[in-house]
């Protein structure tokens, strides 16, 4: 039986999207982030984890 630590992650954008690679901007859009200091809650899935890992230098991530 698998036990998930948390179902959701709280993701906050701390750096600007301007001047970033198009792939990084697409990851921000996929996570639903538009503005600096905006926080969204996303499900803790492999897809979301992959986007978070790609742009980890731009985000603060906490388990909810």
Q: How would you characterize this protein structure?
A:
This protein is an alpha+beta fold and 64 residues long. The protein has a single domain (8-63), classed as Ribosomal Protein L30, Chain: A, CATH 3.30.1390. Helix content is 30%, strand content 25%. It is built from two helices and three strands. The protein has helices spanning 22-31, 46-54; strands at 8-13, 39-43, 59-63. It has a three-stranded antiparallel beta sheet, with no helix packed on it. Helix 1 packs across helix 2 (46-54). The longest helix has 10 residues, at 22-31. The radius of gyration is 12 Å and the shape is globular. The protein starts with 7 loop residues before the first strand and ends with a strand. The mean pLDDT is 93.
């Amino acid at each position: 039986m698998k036990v998930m630590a948390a179902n959701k992650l709280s993701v906050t954008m701390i750096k600007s999207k301007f001047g970033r690679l198009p792939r990084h901007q697409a990851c921000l859009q996929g996570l639903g982030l538009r503005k600096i200091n905006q926080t969204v809650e996303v499900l803790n899935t492999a897809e979301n984890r992959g986007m978070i890992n790609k742009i980890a230098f731009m985000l603060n991530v906490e388990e909810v």
